[in-house]
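Priority: low. Protein: Aryl-alcohol dehydrogenase-like predicted oxidoreductase. Input follows.
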Amino acid sequence: MKYRILGKTGMNISVVGVGTWQFGGEWGKDFTQGEVNDILDAAQERGINFIDTAECYGDHLSESLIGKRTSRDRDKWIIATKFGHHFHNFLERTRHFDPTDVVRQLDLSLKSLKTDYIDLYQMHSSKDDEFHTEGLWEELERQKEKGKIRHIGLSISGNDNIYQTSRATDVGAESIQVVYNRLDRVPEKEVFPSCREQNLGVLARVPMASGLLSGKYGKGHVFTGSDVRATRDKEELERQIEEVAKINREEVPEGVPMASWALAWCLKDPVVTAVIPGCKNTAQVHSNADAAELL
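Result:
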């Protein structure tokens, strides 16, 4: 495994992390505690020390599954979670950025994660007016002073959101989480230059384009059931699957798994501190970790 410093935080994180939206049950599978333990054990064996989760991956469900595993060796992990949404069901989340409610969310996350501090607490896909919620950033600074939060980050919704990115330092944020992958290079235009200028860490989410860049989905594939990809526009999905096939033919070196290549592709830009792909089993953990060997 290789490691990079996450911007101004000083935290030395593995270039491949573990994304955990799937643990909330929205990617076509419900996870047992044993399965989560196995995934995180495999990650640790490969030198992965960074986990990204959120308050609304289930109703703190992902956090709870993570906490039951990481509580026994908490000091070995760098854990990031988020605030701003309440989970009601797979189709409904409500938005809550009021400082009092955010503190309540923080305390629920700490309880779920079975920890007394969060390494990176990220604003979760806020709108620009929510970004300016009165008293929010002052309250987060107070929570830092209390030791509940070590660092603050922004998980921006639109990957062209230069408005929030350019103001990150002003509000005390030290990292940006953004969608970035071979199919979606929008952040390269404005977001990444701003991150360089401010020395912000960059976490690339959806680095395999929701699994499409694994190369395992062929023309005409249909996602069904509780898989969140079943809600996507079918024509756009088909177009992307065709583009992936072309990339696989023309850009992926012979003998290199496309999934590992796709993660390494993101990391070739030094502004990207880490990628945070999801994984459903230990085999995928090892495939993700292999990306570090391609750098």
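The chain has one domain: 3-294. The CA atoms of residues 219 and 241 lie 6 Å apart.
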